[in-house]
Structures are given as structure tokens and as C-alpha cells.
Amino acid sequence: MIRRYSPIVLVTLIAALALSACGGGTTPAPSAKAITLDAAEFSFTPNAFTAKVGEEVTFTITNKGTLEHNFVVFDSSGAELTRTTIAVGSSATAKVKPSAAGAYEIVCDVAGHKEAGMVATLTVSE
Q1: How far apart (Å, rounded) are the C-alpha atoms in residues 120 and 106?
Q2: Neighbour count for residue 85 (Cβ, 10 Å)
Q3: Could you tell me which of 77, 33, 84, 28 has the C-alpha nearest to residue 61?
Q4: Pick from 86, 103, 102, 109: which is nearest to 37 by CA?
Q5: Measured between alpha carbons, how far is 126 from 80 in angstroms, rounded to an integer?
Q6: Sequence ranges of the domains in the chain
Q7: Secondary structure percentages of the chain, helix, strand, coil, to 5
Q8: What is the CATH class of 32-125?
Q9: pLDDT in tens, 4-34
């Protein structure tokens, strides 16, 4: 027995197949953020940053001071996420990918630098 389909059913079926072919198969690129800042005695400039959970953040830090500095990022629980040293007159990069919302502390932990005010904050939101 031969079945006859109405033109509306055929058009609907063809449209559904065409649209389903357009909707999948690709993964969106992960989000990323680039932040540049300066390190000097005894500050990071700027010293407040924002990001979203899962967003890869690349910090590029230029040491404009006369002392060696480092750049250490701690998550909201106090766990160290990244650490890099920045020689006088040079730049370095540090990457983090926050996995939870909260305030992430950034410090230079060379003896006395944090205590002198060399701190920053990365505020991570959903």
C-alpha cells in the first residue's frame, strides 16, 4: 500500500531536518580575558579585576619597579593557583581559570611587599 503525505507534512519534515543539521556539532570557544598591570614598590596598578567562573584569565605583569617582584593568586579558599616572578624591567604572564565565585587574593609575597600594600583582588562571579 502506498501512503500519500500532504505537502505540509513533507515541507515540515524537510525544514526540521535542515534546521537540525545547523544546530549542533560545534563546541563554543572557551571565554578568555586578558589583563595587563604594572608592579612597582609596593603596589599593583590597577589592583582590582573581575572575571567569571570558568573564564581563563591571562595576566601580563610589567615590573616598573627597582626590585624583583612576584605575582601569586590564591582562590577564595586560600589555595595557591599560580605564581610567577617578574624581574626588574621585564614582563611575565600568569594564567588562572577560576572554578568558583568569590574574592581571589593577589599578592607579591617577597618578604615585606604584601605587608607594604602590594595586594590586589580578582572578583569572580557566576
Answers
A1: 5
A2: 15
A3: 84
A4: 86
A5: 21
A6: 32-125
A7: 15, 45, 40
A8: mainly beta
A9: 656 665 555 565 555 555 555 554 555 899 9
